[in-house]
Amino acid sequence: MFSAIARVFRTPDLRRKIWFTIGIIAIYRIGAFIPAPGVDYGTVQQCLALGNTEGGAYSFVNMFSGGAMLQVSIFALGIMPYITAAIIVQLLRVVIPRFENLQREGPQGQAKLTQYTRYLTIALGTLNATTIVTMARSGALLSCDLPIVPDDSLGVILLMILTLVTGVALIMWLGEQITERGVGNGMSILIFVSIGAGFPGAMGEIWSTQGWRIFALVLLIGLVAIAAVVFVEQSQRRVPVQYAKRQVGRRTLGGSSTYIPIKVNMAGVIPVIFASSVLTLPSVIAQFNQPAPGEDVGPVMQFIQQYFSGGTHPVYMICFFLMTIFFTYFYVTITFNPNEVAENMRKFGGFIPSVRAGRPTERYLSYVISRITFPGSLYLGFIALIPMIAMVLLGVSQSFPFGGTSILIMVGVGLTTVKQINAQMEQRNYEGLLR
């Protein structure tokens, strides 16, 4: 392994890309600790030391910002607005024919969709920045009575919102620079760094509060979970495809055999993000509808506080599991079009052995997708429940590092990045990075 890493750094072009990526990551992490203008950094640290934010409604978003949101820093919004914008643009392809046509136009259409994603990211960033500044001003963000924003004049508030939105644009630009001049997959690498930044603190907290036995057990659970995620993420159903020979002028084309790789987890981590976001809404509504002193809590608020506040109630876990399964089928349905795949195969003379071209091929692909999606949805549901189960059985905090979106994203991005580095190594050496 060390010899392979040494070969990477002995390659000048690849070494330059890796150091460039590390430099961008350093800038990204430094920005996570620079407080936004108008924020009292000392007061923020006092509120975080009280520990009232643990398990709050925004802990999920805080994970994607690498802890920057609860620090109320210039990168408080993190990469989340871009993720949301990219998902929305992808979903709109099903609703808006214009977007679907742009997807089929190749690089020019993709560039146009990327531009739409950037505009939507800024719009969502403005909305999120306004919400965070409002909650920081009222003290609801950190559940703290201390004044986080001492001067809440209009000019200071507008400057804070402008700074947070500018931070979103800068993060988006940093990710694109990694994609163009670094090792590639820039946005995913920034997400990887944001999530990984919380691992040392979470493991240290488990060691100090639970002891070395629970620490070793958590580490063992993490290794088993990582091995399971790697196994499933690499698993795929290969549908064989045979292309008939065609005569084009004096040349004979086709006659080759290939396959359609259908992954067990085609939806990736998107269903877990959808389910987490939907189940976070009740807690957010409860925070904005706190009763006045002396007033009784209504039955709806009581229900939300009892079942959806901590994330460890069986009702919450069952809802989370079922919604993950639902969103897995939903996302796979809108991203994989059997009709389009069957039509493309027919145009180029391809067919699945023992399956007729056209409508029978479409039905066969739909059947395969439905069978593959079921175990994939169960796998996503169980992985997403790991931190909640650990909270109940092991007594660890909600910052449990292994499980859910964190492990899915980190393992997926890690595998993709290693493959990209290996492909670049194979262009220069026969051995590559992996053997």
From TrEMBL:
<feature type="transmembrane region" description="Helical">
    <location>
        <begin position="372"/>
        <end position="394"/>
    </location>
</feature>
<feature type="transmembrane region" description="Helical">
    <location>
        <begin position="214"/>
        <end position="232"/>
    </location>
</feature>
<feature type="transmembrane region" description="Helical">
    <location>
        <begin position="68"/>
        <end position="95"/>
    </location>
</feature>
<dbReference type="InterPro" id="IPR023201">
    <property type="entry name" value="SecY_dom_sf"/>
</dbReference>
<comment type="subunit">
    <text>Component of the Sec protein translocase complex. Heterotrimer consisting of SecY, SecE and SecG subunits. The heterotrimers can form oligomers, although 1 heterotrimer is thought to be able to translocate proteins. Interacts with the ribosome. Interacts with SecDF, and other proteins may be involved. Interacts with SecA.</text>
</comment>
<keyword id="KW-1133">Transmembrane helix</keyword>
<feature type="transmembrane region" description="Helical">
    <location>
        <begin position="18"/>
        <end position="36"/>
    </location>
</feature>
<keyword id="KW-0653">Protein transport</keyword>
<feature type="transmembrane region" description="Helical">
    <location>
        <begin position="156"/>
        <end position="175"/>
    </location>
</feature>
<feature type="transmembrane region" description="Helical">
    <location>
        <begin position="116"/>
        <end position="136"/>
    </location>
</feature>
<dbReference type="InterPro" id="IPR030659">
    <property type="entry name" value="SecY_CS"/>
</dbReference>
<dbReference type="Pfam" id="PF00344">
    <property type="entry name" value="SecY"/>
</dbReference>
<keyword id="KW-0812">Transmembrane</keyword>
<keyword id="KW-1003">Cell membrane</keyword>
<keyword id="KW-0811">Translocation</keyword>
<comment type="similarity">
    <text>Belongs to the SecY/SEC61-alpha family.</text>
</comment>
<protein>
    <recommendedName>
        <fullName>Protein translocase subunit SecY</fullName>
    </recommendedName>
</protein>
<feature type="transmembrane region" description="Helical">
    <location>
        <begin position="315"/>
        <end position="336"/>
    </location>
</feature>
<feature type="transmembrane region" description="Helical">
    <location>
        <begin position="253"/>
        <end position="274"/>
    </location>
</feature>
<keyword id="KW-0813">Transport</keyword>
<feature type="transmembrane region" description="Helical">
    <location>
        <begin position="187"/>
        <end position="208"/>
    </location>
</feature>
<dbReference type="InterPro" id="IPR026593">
    <property type="entry name" value="SecY"/>
</dbReference>
<dbReference type="InterPro" id="IPR002208">
    <property type="entry name" value="SecY/SEC61-alpha"/>
</dbReference>
<feature type="transmembrane region" description="Helical">
    <location>
        <begin position="400"/>
        <end position="418"/>
    </location>
</feature>
<keyword id="KW-0472">Membrane</keyword>
<comment type="function">
    <text>The central subunit of the protein translocation channel SecYEG. Consists of two halves formed by TMs 1-5 and 6-10. These two domains form a lateral gate at the front which open onto the bilayer between TMs 2 and 7, and are clamped together by SecE at the back. The channel is closed by both a pore ring composed of hydrophobic SecY resides and a short helix (helix 2A) on the extracellular side of the membrane which forms a plug. The plug probably moves laterally to allow the channel to open. The ring and the pore may move independently.</text>
</comment>
